[in-house]
Amino acid sequence: MLGVFINALAVIVGSLLGFLLHKGISERINNVIMIGVGLCVVYIGIDGLTGGVNPLVAVLSIIPAAVIGTVLDFDGGLIRFGEKITAKFSQGGGSKAAEGFVTASLLFCIGAMAVVGSISAGLTGDNSILLTKSVLDFISATMLSAAFGLGVMLSAIPLTLYQGGIALFANFLSPVLTDSIIGALTCVGSILILALGLNILNISKIKIANLLPAIIFAPFAQLLVNLI
Length: 228
Prior knowledge:
mainly alpha
């Protein structure tokens, strides 16, 4: 679990650093940073789609997630949550804080390093993958927080729960989290990350929070495709 806590701490420190740096940045430079962040997020999303996962997995994950998320209004709930958290700060409204939280949470939790690193830490106590990931997440958190504010720091909570849960139950999850399941999670998560990047660049206005259940559906969709 040490690697999980270090990873969460790296996100928190990086977020605080980015938030402090933002105060001394002009609006023109901040706009440039947002464009840079958007392009990097788009690249990360596209890169995660190169794993050769059956497109049907994405369809079976995204579509029911969109229906459920829209009916339950996850996006509206997340914005209201962001408004409460950021009420004491002068910068950033609820929508911006929510976008930063969702963007950071997906970036830090989706991908092979999060899953494999947590399993390795839980089974053998080897934290090397998570420590490497901590350095990368520190840099990303700094950059994201400079653009979105302290909403990014809240991503340390789902990161700790997600990676900590995998580490704690590694003995039970390692047979289940096969390469195909990890690939499905990465693929579906990367689609959401790509959509986030397009939103950051003001190319689209997709309500990403409404699509978050797709992460839960992805493993089951992969199992169903395997049966077919």
